[in-house]
Amino acid sequence: xxxxxxxxxxxxxxxxxxxxxxxxxxxxxxxxxxxxxxxxxxxxxxxxxxxxxxxxxxxxxxxxxxxxxxxxxxxxxxxxxxxxxxxxxxxxxxxxxxxxxxxxxxxxxxxxxxxxxxxxxxxxxxxxxxxxxxxxxxxxxxxxxxxxxxxxxxxxxxxxxxxxxxxxxxxxxxxxxxxxxxxxxxxxxxxxxxxxxxxxxxxxxxxxxxxxxxxxxxxxxxxxxxxxxxxxxxxxxxxxxxxxxxxxxxxxxxxxxxxxxxxxxxxxxxxxxxxxxxxxxxxxxxxxxxxxxxxxxxxxxxxxxxxxxxxxxxxxxxxxxxxxxxxxxxxxxxxxxxxxxxxxxx
Length: 346
Description:
346 residues, two-stranded antiparallel ribbon, Transferase(Phosphotransferase), domain 1, Prot_kinase_dom, Kinase-like_dom_sf, ATP binding, Protein kinase domain-containing protein, single chain, alpha+beta, protein kinase activity, 2 domains
């Protein structure tokens, strides 16, 4: 993104995006570079069995090839000093409409620090002036840029990652998001197996988000453990919402529903089945007659998230605060930990 003139500006007025309802004033340049897509590749745990503590069946996970940060051009950074913006993001309130676009290179205020795989490699960057916080920045360009920006504006829900700031520079648009580093893929590869109450707390939040999309006649289309994040407060944050697509009210919502089945299966047994089927191979942790297994079976026949959210697994008091410790162990397990497998109970 280097440029000889850091002050070179490109104006993108979101109000003027086609279909926004207002006559164009300053149109987006038509001759944009080829699209740079944000990878939604699923990094699935694989090779069944990673060595775990006492009596825990080892699980090694299968990993698919993922793209690099250069390939998907997803970047990160920050310049957010307004506490109200941060609070709004924590509450899941989109502040897109209230934020002004900065017509400058985001890299004047950001510094790239390292790459992280969040459904595709991204660069984590810090504020050059204050290195306390990190944020995710996604770059959009090409002919589909306008549709992605419209989708970012359209989706407003507490379980989707919120936009905090916007930049426009050199025929590209940058959306800045809060940085959450732990994905469900990290939870899957962490040693502890989920208790049923923790599984329910995760699935309930995902279903709330997918149910919201259904009511908007939208479909995510690429949900997986890698692009669903878990905040330190136990809040699920789904990413890649800019790739959501419109569906008619008469179309079945099977893609996202089936994805939830695979996500639940990975969270329960820490790998996907070789034959691609949804179901457990080992019932030692989750008995065949328990609510979690019944929910998993229901994902193979359900036609909507609204149907699944009424399942008895989710009828109890679902508390996201129960998930906080999972974030802690997911971020520290690589430096050594102690976990008493004998105390595990569903």
